[in-house]
Amino acid sequence: MRGIGSASVAAIAIGLVCTPAAAQQTPAPVDVQRATPVQTDAGGQSADAAGGTITQADPQSAAAAGQDTPAEDIVITGSRITTGGFTAPTPTTIIDSAAIAANAQPNVFTTIAQLPSLQGSTGTSVGTFSTSSGQQGLSSFSLRGVGAIRTLTLLDGQRVVGANVTGVPDISLFPQLLIKRVDVVNGGASASYGSDAVGGVVNFITDTRFKGIRGNVQGGITTYGDDEQVLVQLAAGTSALNDRLHLIASTEYAHEEGVGGGDFGIGLAGGRDWFRQSTLINRNVVNDGSPQYLFRDFAQPYNYTKYGLITAGPLQGIAFDQGGNPFQFNYGSNGVPARDAAGNVNGCYPGFCLGGDLSGNVDAGRTLQSKIQRVNSYGRIGFDFAPNGEIYATANIGQVKTSNQPVGGQNRPNLTIQCANPFVPALVQAACATAGITNFQYGTSNAALGSTQVFTDRRQYRFVAGAKGRQPVAGSEWSYDIYYEHGTNYSNIDVNNILLSNRFNQAINATTLNGAIVCANAVARANGCQPLNIFGGNPSQAALSYIMPENGPRQRTRQTQDVISLNFSGSPFSSWAGPVSVAFGGEFRHEFYTVRADPYGAGFANTPADAAYPADPTLLAGGNNWYAGNYKNGNGAYSVKEAFVEADLPLINSDLAGRANVNGAVRVTDYSTSGTVWAWKIGGTWDLPLDGLRVRGVTSRDVRAPNLSELFAAPVTTTLPGFFDPFRNVNVLAIQNTIGNRNLTPEIARNTTLGIAFSGSKALPGLSLSVDYYKIKITDVISSLGAADIVNLCFQNIAPETCGAFNLNNNAGPNFINVQAFNLASIETDGFDIEASYRWQRPLGLPGSLTLRALATNIRSFVTDTGLPGTIPVDSAGANIGNTPDWKWLAVQTYATDDFSLLVQERWFSDGVLGHQYVECTTGCPVSTNNRPTIDTNFIPGAFYMDVGGTYNLTSAMTAYFKVDNVFNRDPARSPYFVNPALYDVLGRVYRAGVRFKF
Description:
- The chain is mainly beta.
- It folds into two domains: 85-261 and 369-407 and 455-495 and 554-706 and 741-785 and 820-998, TonB-dependent receptor, beta-barrel domain (Maltoporin, Chain A); 299-360 and 411-444 and 501-547, no CATH class.
- Helix content is 8%, strand content 44%.
- The strands form ten sheets. The protein has a 22-stranded antiparallel barrel. The protein has a six-stranded mixed sheet with strand order 2-4-7-8-5-6.
- It starts with 19 loop residues before the first helix and ends with a strand.
- It holds the Pfam family Plug.
- Keywords: Cell outer membrane, Membrane, Receptor, Signal, TonB box, Transmembrane, Transmembrane beta strand, Transport.
- Residues 444-967 form the TonB-dependent receptor-like beta-barrel domain.
């Protein structure tokens, strides 16, 4: 069973794969105990080796999952205590290698992210709609919905250099074939592991004593014939010098083609037909008895079209086809242009009509899943310098490349075009003369310019050297773990096919000079300006090269992390109930980053001269020249010094009263940026004298310090092309500048968990039931107001202090909104984790075993308080436009024999709402307010997905397998924000098949 990772507790499995080693034996009866992470002496029963396990950890589960290491060396992530017999109170889920294999995903991240307690994790289908975020294709976990920045991800219990300035690592860069198990700590662990462990910890444990050769070849494709997938993995391990020298290496290549953007209008990639351009329309009327907000399908903005539309004045409603020919636009809703200066359309809603000509809508162009290519290599050398001591070194070098299309076209509403522009068709020029006007308002999605593409390239170089083992000290044995880690991550972002706003403005302002059409501005002409015909879809190549140069926005980021860590654990003495265990240690960590951007985005004065970006006096010297992707220069660093102590005191150990212990820890941390902060935890477990019943509880004070991005953010600029200006009641082009704040202080969290578990009963063998209640309250939350909130709070005079953060009518430069982080918010969430498992050997007399398993998380509340005057807390539990549905569960049924296995898996989350702040009504509505707006439909359905899979042992060393995800090809629910890939499957049915081998 080496390397299979079976567990002795009943498991909630994501998948089932019958590996050759497992297939040669019949799994033993299961001892189900959804209890707590523990370390114990070897022993216990074996559970479902064929199927793999996801367990809510127990002592024997840890030992079984770590078969290649003596049981007394097993460290379960919920605690730093490693001595035998210890039971920690923090719930920890263990996913073994067989469960990971059974789910047959091209990235292990997807398998772990399916756990119900993980909400809001990012990946290749999340974060694809932004040009400037730099998070495209970044795989990172979020526990309890509190965000990836509040979830600590470790590799072999050690920190990993961030793949983004937020500090979160990219799971895609981990050595996936050597993963022996994954520990998911569902609760605060800052006292044991330090900053960021507010929501919990995800710890990947590698097989450090692997011997032999292991490989996997897998392919996949969707039912629409896209997102073609190839995965090739190979690992090898050996030993020498009488089994004292251990060498391990792995390499892998993965390619997912992704699902790109569709066409303009409502046509998605691959012929997917679920997109309906659903939109939340603001009527801007709050007191007429009707709802202020309307949730409508097939909404059509009336301030731009695919190839151009005159949007206001006497010529309003004249649109242009691809050839530049004028025609009368079909507004839908029987809309009739008012032909006034404001651009209203009679019969339509503010900003939108329903139906009509939908061809100009840009949302269908969004990438549904980023293209991703991973190349990863890992090596480890270890030498046993003593029977219980090892020195080792590891190297992990990996690269992840992704690309995506944020949206279709490059939308530009509210342009002013001169009637005398020689590109204006003669019929329109004549209409201008008849109407007595010299210019008109114009809007276009710029379909003729093509769509922007964002490319990211992340490279990680991570090296670790350390020593670990056990050593007798003063009559008792102590464990030690000392390591130094240095990691460097390089992140490159390149944006292609994107316009320079000022050059675009100069190019569309054309005139005739000496019989030739040229740019009207002489300075622009002298610097290469080429006139652009934006009427229709036939711009000249010279004009395209001028407004969209070959070298687009770029960002080059380097992050480094250096860590020195020392940890010791032992049992120096015993109490009346057993050995008293103690762990203590310290850590020093230094984080640094620097980022450099192109001069057109960052500004000429801030960036060295670059021949690829020649100076141009028509561009803004301070930067922000790109339509989007205006990256900035920056750098920052901080250091952390910390020390901790943890102790476990047995209280009860008798047949009459059962077994109980108290566990506590305290950590002091000194940040170079924000000073000293304390974290602590106190809890315990009690195995009742009732057969199979255990209770546990823990409460803790956890911390998250501001990261490099929040402290020293290079100003990130995002273009908001249709930003609504409530002061003038118009949509404007605005720039959002996100900047850092060096005065931030750590967030403080209080975590409490109480649980009860029934398992391992002699009367009910094979049955496991458990319930845990959790509550998290985070204060001094580092958060930023959205651009719209900043403007609206000023407009409504709720928070006048925000008025200085923006200018939407800026004659001296681009309109802007400055967004900055502050310790101003709080988050409070609570809910239940519920798990059940039953294992049936030889069901109905058939060979093999049948296992039924389920995990569920209920979020009772998830309340965010912005801390701003005039606002009220918002409960987003059950708001299905986010990532925290009321209920989320995962259920698996597996049947396994010595020759084959079958798996059926269900994923489900409950119906929800757009937001609990809304008052749903259709008539007789109360006055709509900022805190309690009225809406006609406040419902977003949940979803049910079924997956099936199976394996067949071709030989004793080779297993073929298949997996079908989303068997019923369930479409995502309609959403006013395009789609929510954090909850809904946006790809449809996916087929995967492959072969695994091990020698």
